[in-house]
C-alpha cells in the first residue's frame, strides 16, 4: 500500500503538470519508431570523477578511495573549456540521432541546480559554480537531436539512501520506512525537475538492482513521468518497467529477444574520462560494431567521457569523426533499417530497409564476390553505395541462391555497403537449398576462388568432402584422384591448408564469427576462413575459452590478438580481434587456426540489461 506521503507528493505533481501533458498517447510501436529508426546515439559520462580520472562512483563504493576524498573532486571540476555547442556539433556530425547524458550518477552529484532536499550539485558545490546541464540540453534541442537523460536511482552519498558502500549500510528500510520514503520523495523530486525543465524524449535509468520494483515505487514513478510526456521512452533499468533492453559493453552474439534494444558501449574500457586508459578501439572497430548492431536490429549508444574542464579527448573526437564519415556516406543503409537476413541466408552482416524493398550487405573486406541464399524475390538492381563507377553483376541459380560479383570497386576503408533493390518486399526461405558439388567437380572448376569458397562452405555446413578422399593431415603424399581437367592451383591450396580440411567438422553457429569456419576433430582448434582483404582485424565473439595461440594455416606464422570489453565482474567473454598481416593473406581464402585451452565453449545466453557490476 502506498505511503500517505507518497500519495500526497504524487497528487501535487499531477496538479503541477496537468497543463503540460498535451501530447497524444501514441501506440507502443509508433512511440518507439524514432528510437528504432535512429540506430546511433552518443552517451556522455561527465561528472566529478573526471577530475582525478577514476571510476565514476564505484571507486568509493568499492572502497578504492574513501568517500571524503572522492567528493573533494568537486573542487577541481571547473568546466572551464566547456563548449556545449561544440559537443552537439560533434555529436550531430557523427551521425547520431540522439544523445544521453549523465544528469546524476550513483555518487549523487547533479549537473543541474536541483532543489531536491539535501542535493549535491555542480552549481552549488563544485568549482564550476554553474549549471552545466541546461546549456547542453538547449543546444541539443536546437540541433533537432532527441534528448536522453541518464538518471541513477541510487544515491550513495545521500543521507536518506540506505546503502553507503559495498560493505556498509546506513539503515534497514523495513525498520525505518519514513527515512526511505524521504528518499523516494527526493529522487522523484529530481525526476520531476528534469521532466519539467528539459522535457526529455528518453529517460535512461541505472542502478535498479539495489531494490525491488515495489521499494522503488517503480510503477508510480513511470506513471508520473508519463504525465509530463505520455510518449516518454524508458530503458529497461526500472525493474522491467521499460520499453527497451540495454545490454552493456559485450556486443550480443545473437539478437536480444526484445524488438527494441540498444548496446551501450565504451570507446576504451572506461565510461568517464580516465587519462591512463589508452585501450581504445580503432575507428574501424567502432564502425564495424555499428554495422554489427544494425544487422541485429538494435541501436549503438557509443560513450564519450569529457575531461573535468569540459574538453573531449582527442582519441574520442577522431572516432566520432570517422564514424561521421561512414554514416554520412551510407545514410540509407543506417537509418530506418531493420534486422537483416539470418546467417544461414547470408554469412555476414546485413540489414533490410523499413519498407522491406532494399537489402544492405556490410562487407568488412575487399573481395571478388559474395553469395546470398534462399531469396524468393529477385533484385532489380545492385550497387555499391558511394561508388558510382563500381561494376556489380548478379545471377541466381535454380535454388534461388544469388551470386554477386564485384569489379572496379573502391572498397570503403571500414565497411563497404552493397545495396540490392527489389520491386516487392524481400522474401527468403529458411532452411535454404544448395547444390552439393562433388570433390571432382570442385577440382575441375577453373575459378580457384569459387572452388575454395565451395570447400569452406561445405565444411561450415558440416559436409566434409575430404573424408576418405585421399587427403592427408599434412598435405603430403595425397592420393586425391586427379585428371587432365584438375585445377592445380586449387589442389595446391588444398595441400597447403590440409590441417583445416582433414577430419574437421561443422564450424561456429551464427553470431560468433562473420564468415565460415570449421572445428578440429577434438573441437579444440577453430579454423576461420578469411575472404579477401579485411579492412581491419577479424573479430570473434562469445568464446569462453582462453586462447593459447593463433597462427596462419599452411605457413606457420604466429599472429597477435587483442581482447576488448572483458569485464572482471561479468562472465560474458570479451570480443577477440585478430590482426592478419596483409602480406601473409592467401589470394584465394586465408585460413586462421585458433588453438583453445580446451574444447570450445560458447556464450550464447540471452542478452538483457546488466543487473549489477559489483
TrEMBL record:
Membrane-crossing segments per the record: none
Q: What does this protein do?
A: Alpha-L-fucosidase is responsible for hydrolyzing the alpha-1,6-linked fucose joined to the reducing-end N-acetylglucosamine of the carbohydrate moieties of glycoproteins.
Glycoside hydrolase family 29 N-terminal domain ranges (all copies): 23-332
So which domain of life are we looking at?
Bacteria
Name the chain's protein. alpha-L-fucosidase
Q: Which Gene3D superfamilies does the protein's record reference?
A: Glycosidases
Q: Which residues does UniProt assign to the signal peptide?
A: 1-22
Does Metal-binding appear among the keywords?
Answer: no
Q: Name one Pfam family in it.
A: Alpha_L_fucos
Primary enzyme class = hydrolase
Family the UniProt entry places it in: Belongs to the glycosyl hydrolase 29 family.
Keywords carried by this UniProt record: Glycosidase, Hydrolase, Signal
Q: What EC number(s) does its UniProt record assign?
A: 3.2.1.51
Amino acid at each position: 500500500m502506498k505511503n500517505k506521503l507518497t500519495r500526497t507528493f504524487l497528487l501535487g505533481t499531477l496538479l503541477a503538470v496537468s497543463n503540460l501533458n498535451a501530447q497524444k498517447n501514441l501506440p507502443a510501436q509508433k512511440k518507439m519508431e524514432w528510437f528504432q529508426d535512429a540506430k546511433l546515439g552518443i552517451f556522455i559520462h561527465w561528472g566529478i570523477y573526471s577530475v582525478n580520472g577514476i571510476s565514476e562512483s564505484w571507486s568509493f563504493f568499492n572502497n578504492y578511495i574513501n568517500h571524503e576524498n572522492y567528493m573533494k573532486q568537486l573542487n577541481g571540476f571547473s568546466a572551464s573549456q566547456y563548449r556545449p555547442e561544440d559537443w552537439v556539433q560533434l555529436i550531430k556530425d557523427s551521425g547520431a540521432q540522439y544523445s544521453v547524458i549523465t544528469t546524476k550518477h550513483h555518487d549523487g552529484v547533479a549537473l543541474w541546480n536541483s532543489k531536491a532536499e539535501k542535493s549535491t550539485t555542480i552549481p552549488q558545490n563544485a568549482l564550476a559554480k554553474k549549471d552545466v546541464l541546461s546549456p547542453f540540453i538547449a543546444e541539443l534541442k536546437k540541433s533537432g537531436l532527441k534528448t536522453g537523460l541518464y538518471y541513477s536511482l541510487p544515491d550513495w552519498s545521500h543521507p536518506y539512501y540506505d546503502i553507503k558502500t559495498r560493505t556498509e549500510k546506513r539503515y534497514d528500510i523495513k525498520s525505518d520506512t519514513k527515512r526511505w520514503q524521504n528518499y523516494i520523495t527526493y529522487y522523484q523530486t529530481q525526476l520531476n525537475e528534469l521532466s519539467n525543465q528539459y522535457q526529455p524524449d528518453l529517460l535512461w535509468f541505472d542502478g535498479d538492482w539495489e531494490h525491488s520494483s515495489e521499494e522503488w515505487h517503480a510503477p508510480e514513478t513511470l506513471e508520473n513521468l508519463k504525465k509530463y510526456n505520455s510518449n516518454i521512452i524508458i530503458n529497461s533499468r526500472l525493474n522491467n518497467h521499460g520499453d527497451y533492453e540495454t545490454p552493456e559493453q559485450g556486443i550480443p552474439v545473437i539478437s536480444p529477444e526484445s524488438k527494441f534494444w540498444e548496446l551501450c558501449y565504451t570507446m576504451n574500457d572506461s565510461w568517464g574520462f580516465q587519462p591512463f586508459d589508452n585501450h581504445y578501439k580503432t575507428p574501424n572497430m567502432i564502425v564495424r560494431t555499428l554495422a554489427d548492431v544494425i544487422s541485429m536490429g538494435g541501436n549503438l549508444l557509443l560513450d564519450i567521457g569529457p575531461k573535468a574542464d569540459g574538453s573531449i579527448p582527442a582519441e574520442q573526437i577522431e572516432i566520432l569523426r570517422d564514424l561521421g564519415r561512414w554514416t554520412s556516406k551510407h545514410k540509407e543503409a543506417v537509418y530506418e533499417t531493420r534486422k537483416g537476413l539470418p546467417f544461414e541466408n547470408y554469412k555476414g552482416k546485413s540489414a533490410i530497409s523499413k519498407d522491406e524493398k532494399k537489402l544492405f550487405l556490410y562487407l568488412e573486406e575487399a573481395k571478388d564476390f559474395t553469395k546470398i541464399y534462399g531469396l524468393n524475390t529477385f533484385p532489380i538492381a545492385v550497387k555499391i553505395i558511394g561508388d558510382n563507377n563500381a561494376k556489380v553483376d548478379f545471377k541466381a541459380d535454380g535454388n534461388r541462391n544469388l551470386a554477386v560479383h564485384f569489379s572496379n570497386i573502391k572498397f570503403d576503408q571500414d565497411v563497404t555497403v552493397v545495396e540490392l533493390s527489389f520491386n516487392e518486399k524481400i522474401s527468403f526461405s529458411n532452411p535454404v537449398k544448395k547444390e552439393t558439388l562433388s570433390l571432382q567437380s570442385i577440382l575441375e572448376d577453373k575459378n580457384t576462388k569459387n572452388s575454395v569458397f565451395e570447400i569452406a562452405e561445405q565444411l561450415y555446413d558440416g559436409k566434409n568432402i575430404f573424408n576418405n578422399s585421399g587427403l592427408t593431415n599434412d598435405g603430403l603424399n595425397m592420393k586425391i584422384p586427379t585428371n587432365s581437367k584438375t585445377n592445380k592451383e586449387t589442389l595446391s591450396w588444398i595441400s597447403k591448408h590440409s590441417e583445416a580440411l582433414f577430419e574437421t567438422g561443422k564450424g561456429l553457429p551464427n553470431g560468433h564469427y562473420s564468415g565460415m569456419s570449421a572445428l578440429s576433430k577434438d573441437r579444440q582448434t577453430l579454423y576461420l576462413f578469411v575472404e579477401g582483404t579485411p579492412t581491419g582485424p577479424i573479430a570473434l565473439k562469445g568464446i569462453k575459452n582462453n586462447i593459447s595461440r593463433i597462427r596462419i594455416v599452411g605457413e606457420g606464422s604466429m599472429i597477435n590478438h587483442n581482447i576488448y570489453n572483458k569485464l572482471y565482474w561479468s562472465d560474458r567473454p570479451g570480443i577477440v580481434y585478430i590482426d592478419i598481416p596483409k602480406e601473409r593473406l592467401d589470394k584465394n581464402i586465408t585460413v586462421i587456426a585458433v588453438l583453445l585451452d580446451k574444447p570450445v565453449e560458447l556464450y550464447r545466453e540471452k542478452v538483457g540489461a546488466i543487473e549489477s557490476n559489483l
